Structures are given as structure tokens and as C-alpha cells.
Amino acid sequence: MRGWLVSLRIARREARRAKGRTALVLSLILLPVLGLSFAAVTYDMFALTPAEELDRELGRFEASVHWPFGGPVTQDAQGYGVMNPGRGEPATPSAEGLLALLPAGSRVALLDEREVRLRGGTGEQKLRAHQFDLADAAYRGRVALLRGTAPASGGEVALNAAAMELLGVLLGGTVQLPERGELRVVAEMELPGSLKPAAVLRPGTLPVGPPERYTSWLVDAPAPITWDQVRALNQHGVVVRSRAVVLDPPPDAPTWPSGDGDVFGLGVLVFGLGVLEIVLLAGPAFAVGARRRRRELALVAANGGTPAQLRRIVLADGVLLGVVAGVVGTAVAIAAAFALRGVFEEHVVRARAGGYRVFPEALLGIAGLAFVAGVGAALVPAFAAARTDVVAALAGRRNRTGPGRRWLVAGLGMLGAGAAGAGYGVVAIDSTVVMAGLVLAELGLVVVTPTLVGLVARLGRRLPLAPRIAVRDLARNRSSTAPAISAVMAAVLGAVTIGVFFASDVQRQRDMQVAALPDGYAEITRGWGDRGERADPLPTARLVQAATATLPVARTVELRGVACPPGASADTSCWLLPVRPAHRRCPFRPGDATPEEQRKAARDPRCRGNGYVMYGGGNATTIVDDGSTVGVVSAAHGEDLARAEATLRAGGVVVADPSLVDNGTVLLAAPSPGDPEGYGHTVAVPGYVTTTAVSRVFVAMSPQAVAKAGLAVEVKGIVVATSRMPTRAEMGAFNAATGALGNFYHGSVAWPYRPDATVNLVVLGIVAAVIALGAAGISTGLAAVDSRPDLATLGAVGASPGVRRRLTLSQAGVIAGLGSLLGAAAGLGAGWAVLAALNRQALSRWPADATYPWAVPWPNVAVAVLVVPAVAMLGTAMFTRARLPIERRT
Fold first, then answer.
1. Does residue 103 have a cis peptide bond before it, meaning omega lies within 30 degrees of 0?
2. Which residue, among 165, 169, 166, 205, has the nearest Cα to 186 in the 3D structure?
3. CA dihedral 460, 465, 471, 475 (to 10 degrees)
4. pLDDT (average), residues 19-30
5. Percent residues over pLDDT 90 in the chain
6. How far is CA 328 from CA 20, 34, 766, in A?
7. Labelling 608: which of 284, 475, 690, 736 has CA 20 to 30 A away?
């Protein structure tokens, strides 16, 4: 123990003597610790506990319920999973019926959330509106009243800050609600679960239709709703999400698979690669430090110091700096995460964090990793110092030995074994095996790096003077060059891997979305009232006038759709849609499939859904056309448009989904209450698959095909082709003009889809980019410090300061450039392995989740191969002086 105390005192003295080098070494260790700690704290603040989730969902109510079935159901404890619904007629849900089933003294409050149009200083805008009594204390937690008083009548409204900004109105101002008239803004409120524009109206401000099967109520009961009471309600077809059951789930509650495995798998990968990155970043720092102290260590050995004592002296550096980096990095990360919490709430997550908390388990683990990484990174320099040639060190000579062939063979073997291991982990859907394979492959790249440096040096004979000297010097000093390249490679690998996942997730979200119209196009259609009532259609000329007065209109066409035949009752709904032929239909139903059938369905390509989500309207995706409007509505063009028009003129159907067409024929089905899929009433018509339509679910049916199915055609509204993307002011005016039409007409403008980025990915992406840039600059700066004797020698033989500066810049460029190229290539490979494993996991379940497409994050790659070397060269230039003092060298 006394020997370690002496070594720690020496390490502390050396840290004080070489403050600049100590700061660089500490920064290199601290960077990943700071980044991972910041990510951990930010994640923990926004990861809501079950109690916090329930507060935002229920407020102070005891449960939420909906009544979708008329027979017994089985649900999980969370109230989300439902199995084996009853086959009887759906129940007629009502508040009175629920109160009869709930404990005595209970009350229910309808959950009424809808999209409304409010007109303020910026025109008419769409936002979400909630109808409930803001003064009711039971809603505390679900909503917060910040300023003003709760709406007391139907002529008052409460807005959140985003809605006030969107509408251009302040507290005390007024807005227009087309269905109601003028509303006075009496309060500023906030929904912690979403900071997007929202309004709260007094109940009764807008009419509410009769309850439907998915109408939800909040339940205020005199006592918590127990699991026995939940099961009793399940017997009547009621699904319950009880606060007491969610917080204390019973052991006999059914469970269903969830997507938590994806999060856990990604956490394992991030953890493993993060540990390796810390070690590789710290490696060059201690290697340079040990070489700068080579003469001091030789003096210790000359005065009787044993190899064990030399190892302890170098390891003490790792212990001291690892502890300091862990403590300082954790403290700075906590302060930064707390300071930036508001920024993430307002601009990234668009929701309030659960609270200020620090994730102590993760921080202790990361701080421990800093200590272990510091010691681990110092191990190789420590053992090298123990084998120091004392005479050569005192004389100032360097040992320059090239890597043996066995190291190259070992590195290639590790690289191949790691790739094979990662591939096996993908097949086995085991994130731990994938992580181990990636780590082994990266270590293999580290081992072969000295050989790659030698290959680059052989190509340097054709370079100008300064770069030629730089690559030759780096090849001679591979013991310092290889760790620096490895550090840059590790940092870039992490950034590119996260970039691959981020780009793939964004593309996945885009693939799941279906545009109804080209961006900037608009539609005006006639809908239904809140009670399902309809009004008479307006002349098309009035709709066109509303559009041309507010939007940059290029052309308008009538939008026609399917209608019930003459003589049908007013409450009848008539539909006509294309269906797959019998041999392409999935033989299983998600709600009825047994576990064995689910496994079979997961392997059956007929059972893979598209998972599309409609945005930007939707009425224009299924139209009735004789070939005159399909080009405008679908944006199809060229030969594809000509064939689509010909098909419609011939009485056929045009679809965007190729699975619907079989030998040039499409089946049209007319669903009914007794035949929900419509398979019992189908007609076959000629079909064509369009390849250029903007909507991937586009369907155009000819009037002849609709008549063949026994249905009629009606004008639903118009589609407006615009000459450019409308401004927000124009869209506000358009919404106001369509709202003024009355008769339940409404308009919508197709707006480009903006994928939501999760807070985890955003934080990890920022952290990885900062670590990559910082590590590149610092590691190349350390390599430049190590090459000062060479620069001094050049100065002694007459090299100008400019030559010496160009030499250091060339060295930095080679180190950062080679490390960035290796890191980018390895990051793309690691990203592919992660996506492949997640896709295998998604396809192993049924119904399957949407898979991740392969997407190359070109901005990340460009930053890696261009910006990172530039930053490294800039950092080196900052640490390099053109005139250096002459250092002793033999």
C-alpha cells in the first residue's frame, strides 16, 4: 500500500508540473464520461415513472375506461392489451351504464379531444382542443393552470403558450371558433404531456355525439379500482386502465409482448461501444504521457526502481486522472443537463420532463468506467515502461520497432471473428452477442492499424516535402501514431453508428406515412356533423372561389367518391374498396390467432402489413374518376399516367399496391355490418398498378366499376393543385374561407411530413458528434506534442517555421483522416448489424412492427471524413508553435 501512496504522490506532482499535457489527457478521458453522463441524466429526467405517466393521463382520477365490446374480454394489467373479444353485438356504451357497473359514489367524465379551427391574429389555425372543467381539481396533473381563471362558460377558452403564439393572441384577447363564435382567452394552461398548440373549452361548448365503442371516460371513484373490479367490468366488455392495478399489477394478470426488448438491446450496444470508446480515447493520452516521462522513469530504474514500481508509477496516472475525470465529468454533465432541460422540453421533446433527477445508478457506473478505463488505458504504457531500456532512455534514443507479422494476422483474425460473431448475434437476435462481435472487430482494427500506417508511408514518396516527412515520421513512431488513430476511429465509429440508426429511424417513419396529395396541394370536402348528420352539397363554383381567393391556385378538379344507391336509408354507410385475391390473404386474424398461429403468421409473407399512417388529408386517396382528374389528384405522369387514364376509361381500377392486382384484375369489395371485410360481395374489374402516384394507397375507380358493384357516385368536393407551397398566412386564410362555407365543409393543405426524433436519439447524436470532434482535436494535439523533438531537429538543420507548421498539420491530417475513414467504415458496418438485429426481432413477432430500412447518414459520414480531420488540424495548429526551443536529442 505504501508503494501505491508514493506512486500517487509522484502522479500528482507530475500532473502539476505538466499542466498542459495533464489537461489534454484529462479532457480525452473526460469527454466520453461527460457525454454518457449527460445522456443518462437527460434520459432519466424525461423517462417518466409509472406514477408520473398516470398523473398526466388520469390526473387525480382513479381510472380510464372504454366500452368496446358486448361480451367478456381479457385484458392485461396496463389496460392496453385485449384478447378474445366477445362475438356478440357491440354494447351501446353510455355514462349511465358505466355508473351502474362502477362502485357506488363514482362519477365519470367524458374524454373529449378533437381538432378544431380557431381564428386569431394570424388567421385560422388548426389545433387540438379538450373539453373539460379546468376548475375541477381531479384534472390536476393532467393539466396545469398557469395564469388567469378557468373557463366558466362556453364563451371562454384557455390556451397554452404554443397556441397563443400560433394564433397571435395574448391573455385577455379573443379568438373565433367557427362553430361557436367569439371566445375570450381567460387563462393560460399547460398540458405537461404535450407542449404543442392546444386549447381547453368548457364542457358543452361544442356538441358531443353519442358515445361509441372507443369513447373513453375518466372515473373518479371513492376508492381505488382493484383487479377484481377490473375483471368484473371485463365481463361486460369494458376495458379499464386502473391506477392501482398499473402501479401494483397482480401476478395472475395476462401479459403480451412489448417493444421493450428493442430499447434494452440498443442499451446494451451503446453501453458496450461506450466502454470501448472510453478505453481507446484514453489510450493515446497515457502512451504520450509515459513517453514524455521516459527519462524520469529511467532515472528511477537507475536508482534501484523495480519493474513493478515503474508500472505502479504509470498506473497511478491512470488512477488519479480516472478518478478526477469521473468526478468532474459527472458534475459538469449534471449541471449541463439541468441547464438545458428547458431547451429539450420546448424544442426537442415538446413535453415536460418528469423532474430533476440524476440517474445515480448510471452515473456511478459511468464514473466507475472512467476509473477502470483510466487504469486499463494505462496498462500497456505501464508494462512498456517496465521494460524500458535505461541506457537508451537516458541517452534520449527512441526504440522504433515495426509491428510483427503475427500482429497483422492476429488483427485480421479478430476482425473476421468479430464480424462472424456479430452476424451470429443478428441471426440469434441477441444484442449481447452483437455487441461482443462489434467490440472484437473494432479491437481487430486497432491491432492492424500500425500495419496500415506503414502502408500509407509507402505511398508518401510522391507527396510534397512536408507531407512526405510527416507520413514517414508517423510510420517510424507507430507506438504513438496507432493509439491516436484508434482514438479518432473509436469516436467516429460511435458517431456514424448512431447516425445510421437515426437516419434509418427517420426513413422508417417516412415510409410509414402516406401522403394523400402532393405537398402544397389542397382539398375541400364535405364531412359529417358531430352527431353523424350531413348537409346538402354546395355548388362546386363556391368551393373553387374559396380556394382561388386564398391559395396560389394552378388548377382545380372535382373530387368524386362512392355513395349509397338511391333509396338507401340516411344512416347507411356505403364503401367500396379493393381487396387482395384469396390466395394472397392472410389466413389468420390478429385478435383470434393462437400463439402457434402467430408464429406461423410471422413467417407467412401474406400476413405482413404495411403499417401505413395517413397524414395531410385522406379523402383524395380513394376517388371515382373517368380518367380526367387522376393526373392532378395522384400526380402520376408520363407513360404511367397514360396507361392509368386508359384503364379508367375502359371501366377499370387503378391502384398503387401491386398485391391487389392479379393477372390484370382487381377485386372490389363492398363491406357491410354482417360482412366487415366485404369478401361476400365482390366484383372483378380490370386493374392497373400505378408506379408514379404520390400516395402509396391511391385507388381510382371508374364509374362503371362502381355501378357494377351496385353503388352510386357523388361529388365530395374539389382538389386544388397549387403553383407553389402556400405560406402559413395563406393556409390560415384558406382554413377560414372553407370554415365559412358551412354545411360541414372543411379544407386541408398537404404539408411535408416532419418525422419526430426521439429524445434518446437526439441526445446520443449530439453527444457522439461532440465526442468525435473533441477527440480528434485532442488526440492529434497530443501526437503533435510527442513529435516536438522531431520539430526541434528540423529547426536545427535549417527548416523554416512554415515547414514545421505544415509538417504538424500534415501529421494531424494523416492521423485524423485515416482514423475517420476506418471509423466511418466500421460505423457503417456496426449500424448495419444493429438494424439487421432489430429487423429480425421485429419480423419474429406478429403483427410485425415496421422494419428499419438501410439508410446511410451522408451528413454524418461527411462530417467524419471531412470536418473531423479539419478540426484535428485546427486543434494541432493551436497547440503547435512555429518556433520551438531546441531539445536534447541524439
1. no
2. 169
3. 100
4. 76
5. 29
6. 17, 8, 20
7. 690
Whether residue 269 contacts residue 438, with contact meaning beta carbons closer than 8 Å, is answered with yes
Does residue 475 contact residue 456 with C-beta atoms inside 8 Å? yes
Write the burial class of residue 757 (CB in 10 Å: 0-12 exposed, 13-18 middle, 19+ buried).
middle
Average pLDDT of the residues in 527-543: 73
CB atoms within 10 A of CB 406: 8
- The pLDDT tens digits for 138-195 are 999 999 999 999 999 999 999 999 999 999 999 999 999 876 789 999 999 999 999 9
DSSP for 370-386, please give it. HHHHHHHHHHHHHHHHH
Cell readout for 709 is: 358493384
Structure confidence by residue, pLDDT tens digits, 724-783: 999 888 888 888 888 788 777 888 888 877 665 555 555 555 666 666 666 666 666 666
Q: Comparing C-alpha atoms, which of 703, 721, 677, 708 is closest to residue 518? A: 721
Task: Give the separation between CA 314 and CA 292, rounded to whole angstroms.
Answer: 12
Residue 750 CB neighbour total at 10 angstroms: 24
Per-residue pLDDT tens over the stretch 100-125: 999 999 999 999 998 888 988 887 88
Asked if 53 contacts 360 with a C-beta cutoff of 8 angstroms, the reply is no
Helix (H, G, I), strand (E, B) or coil at 622: strand
Q: How far apart are CA 35 and CA 58, in angstroms?
A: 35
- Provide DSSP, 302-338: HTT--HHHHHHHHHHHHHHHHHHHHHHHHHHHHHHHH
pLDDT of residue 824: 87
Q: Which residues pair with 623 in a beta bridge?
A: 700
Q: Which amino acid is at 648?
A: L
Instruction: Please report which residue ranges of 718-862 form alpha helices under DSSP H.
Output: 728-739, 759-786, 788-796, 801-843, 858-862
Angle at 847 between CA 844 and CA 850, to 5 degrees: 75
Our measurement of the distance from residue 698's CA atom to the centroid of its chain's CA atoms, rounded to an integer in Å, reads 28
Those residues with Cβ within 8 angstroms of residue 158's Cβ, 6 or more apart along the chain or in another chain: 134, 145, 148, 150, 151, 185, 186, 187, 188, 189, 199, 200
SS3 assignment for 494-550? HHHHHHHHHHHHHHHHHHHEEECCCCCCEEEEECCCCCCCCCCCCCHHHHHHHHHCC
User: DSSP letter at 145?
Assistant: E
Average pLDDT, the chain: 81
Cα dihedral 640, 645, 650, 653 in deg (nearest 10)? 70
Phi, psi of 569 (to 5 degrees): -65, 160
CA terminus-to-terminus distance, the chain: 38
Residue 519 phi/psi, 5-degree rounding, is -55, 130
Number of residues that this document lists for the chain: 890
* Residue of 874, 872, 878, 882 lying closest to 779 (CA atoms): 872
Grid-cell match 333509396, residue found: 567
Place of cell 510510420: 475
Give the whole-angstrom CA distance, residue 542 versus residue 525. 12
Name residue 130's beta-bridge partners.
113, 200
Q: For residue 379, which amino acid is it? A: L
Q: Which of 188, 234, 231, 290 is nearest to 67 (CA)?
A: 234
pLDDT recorded at residue 365: 84
Pairing of the two strands 613-615 and 513-515: parallel
The β-bridge partners of 241 are 64
Q: What is the DSSP string of 270-299?
A: HHHHHHHHHHHHHHHHHHHHHHHTHHHHHH
Cα–Cα dist 657/581, whole Å: 13
Cβ–Cβ under 8 Å, residues 540 and 679: no
809 falls in which pLDDT band (50, 70, 90)?
A: confident
Cell of 466: 512536408
Distances, alpha carbon 249 to alpha carbons 54, 77, 236, in Å: 14, 6, 21
What is the predicted pLDDT for the residue at 450?
A: 81
